């Protein structure tokens, strides 16, 4: 009797396609290496074809594997979409929500609203994923995202809550150490590593500050604020972070060119899920009324 394809075998196949190795697929699926190999073998025996070439550098799809992946990947997305819609039918404010946000926004603006939300909905658990990248809300790596972006992804839905502004700051102690009569030509700067090179403030420093005057470079905006507050030099600090650090002096008004819009986002299939809607509404209400966020649109 001919063996029928098992959907679970196809899920293992797609995981190896996406991750590029058996080990990475096993980690994603929460199983061991041998389980993935066994399920791939079962699928190849069912189809009587080889789906992968086993190479020293990893697993490469054969022509049969490429054809199967092209046919099955859309089905997987349809199954995921159906799961999201069915999940949305559950109106109970219970369970767990996964929220992703960058450390700068979480630390400066979000912890108090999240604490209030938990007090109002004690049956709801929150998982916070601190990340500056867009996790896949399609694949349920997160349910809600708060992001600073002037171009949020088109496949997500949400509302803009305001604008994070950036201004030039230094600590009072650092300015005092420069002595009377010092000006910007005497400043040492706190700058950015290459991972933050796309920021407008990082581009400004590259254009206007000689490299030898950038004595410290950091990889997060929180670290930059901390370094400036500690007296490491002057730097372009997010205004909400500066407001939390005593002893900082604003040296220039916020530059509109550095403004970054802040969005509360979710996947379209999740926006009517009661617990997701409760969280996105709470974050919108809290952040859109926070005076530490500007509300001008970036030109």
UniProtKB/TrEMBL annotation:
Q: Which UniProt keywords apply?
A: DNA-binding, Transcription, Transcription regulation
A molecular-function term among this protein's GO annotations = DNA-binding transcription factor activity
| InterPro entries in the cross-refs | LysR-type_TF_proteobact-type, LysR_HTH_N, LysR_subst-bd, WH-like_DNA-bd_sf, WH_DNA-bd_sf
Signal peptide residue numbers: none
Q: Is Transcription found in the keyword set? A: yes
Residue ranges constituting the HTH lysR-type domain according to the UniProt record: 5-62
Q: Which GO terms describe its biological process?
A: DNA-templated transcription
The superkingdom listed in its UniProt entry is Bacteria
User: Its family?
Assistant: Belongs to the LysR transcriptional regulatory family.
PANTHER family named in the record: HTH-TYPE TRANSCRIPTIONAL REGULATOR, TRANSCRIPTIONAL REGULATORY PROTEIN
Q: What is this protein called?
A: HTH lysR-type domain-containing protein
């Amino acid at each position: 009797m001919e063996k029928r394809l098992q959907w679970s075998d196809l899920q293992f196949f797609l995981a190896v396609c996406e991750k590029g190795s058996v080990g990475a697929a096993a980690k994603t699926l929460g199983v061991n290496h041998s389980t993935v190999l066994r399920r791939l073998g079962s699928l190849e025996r069912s189809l009587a074809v080889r789906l992968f070439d086993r190479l020293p550098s990893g697993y490469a799809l054969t022509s049969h594997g490429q054809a199967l992946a092209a046919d099955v990947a859309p089905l997987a997305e349809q199954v995921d979409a159906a799961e999201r819609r069915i999940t949305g039918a559950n109106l109970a404010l219970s369970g767990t929500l996964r929220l992703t946000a960058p450390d700068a926004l979480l630390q400066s603006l979000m912890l108090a609203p999240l604490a209030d939300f938990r007090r109002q909905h004690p049956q709801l658990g929150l998982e916070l994923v601190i990340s500056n990248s867009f996790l896949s809300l399609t694949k349920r790596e997160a349910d809600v995202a708060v992001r600073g972006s002037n171009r949020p992804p088109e496949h997500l839905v949400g509302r803009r809550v305001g604008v994070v502004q950036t201004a030039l700051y230094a600590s009072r102690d650092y300015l005092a150490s420069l002595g009377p009569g010092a000006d910007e030509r005497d400043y040492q700067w706190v700058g950015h590593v290459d991972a933050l090179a796309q920021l407008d403030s990082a581009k400004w420093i590259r254009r206007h500050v000689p490299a030898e005057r950038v004595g410290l470079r950091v990889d997060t905006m929180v670290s930059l604020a901390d370094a400036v507050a500690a007296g490491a030099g002057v730097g372009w600090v997010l205004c909400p972070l500066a407001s939390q650090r005593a002893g900082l002096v604003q040296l220039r008004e916020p530059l509109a060119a550095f403004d970054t819009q802040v969005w509360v986002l979710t996947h379209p299939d999740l926006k009517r899920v009661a617990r997701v809607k409760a969280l996105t509404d709470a974050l919108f209400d809290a952040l859109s009324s926070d005076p530490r966020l500007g509300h001008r649109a970036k030109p």
